[in-house]
Amino acid sequence: MLKEFKAFIMGGNVIEFAVAVIMAGAIGKVVNGFVSMIIMPIVGHFTGGTDFSNLKIILSEKVDEVKDVAGEVITKAIPENAIMWGSWVNEIVSLIIVGFVMFIIIKGYNKMKKKQEEAAPAGPSQEDLLAEIRDLLKK
After folding, report:
1. pLDDT at 12
2. Residue 4 pairs with which residues in a beta bridge?
3. Can you tell me the distance from the alpha carbon of 33 to that of 94, in angstroms, rounded to the nearest whole number?
4. Residue 45 half-sphere exposure, CB side, CA atoms within 13 Å?
5. Whole-angstrom Cα distance, residue 30 to residue 27?
6. Are the C-beta atoms of residues 57 and 83 closer than 8 Å to each other?
């Protein structure tokens, strides 16, 4: 069982998949940085200096402490409850950019693969091989 697991792990598909996952994580970080540090400030500039990552709809305000009638603290803090729609807009822009980058990568890969297939020499057909075997058997 250990040998089977080792053969599975060392197989080409698992290694390629691991590399793809690591590369996807790295590309994701680069794209998120690109969106948050370059694209969104430009968009914010054209929308009057708005920072989209801080835009939200507050459903309930933050409360530092709640006191009862006698003035004793019942609860120390209640966090703010808000819909963070600005961060969501950032994520949508990231998704669009990641999708576009992946499209470009796959398009280039398919073009390269097609060129390799065209460059590969065509071997003899099955009929040619069978005819050659027949002729050798006749001799």
Report:
1. 65
2. none
3. 9
4. 6
5. 5
6. yes
* pTM beyond cutoff 0.85: no
Q: What percent of the chain has pLDDT over 70?
A: 94
β-bridge partners, 1? none
CB 31 within 8 A of CB 48: no
User: φ, ψ for residue 41 (rounded to 5)?
Assistant: -60, -35
Distance separating alpha carbons of residues 59 and 84, to the nearest angstrom: 11
Give me the helices (H) in 62-125, please: 85-119
* Residue of 95, 104, 103 lying closest to 34 (CA atoms): 95
Query: Tens digit of pLDDT for each residue in 20-43?
Result: 889 888 888 888 888 888 888 888
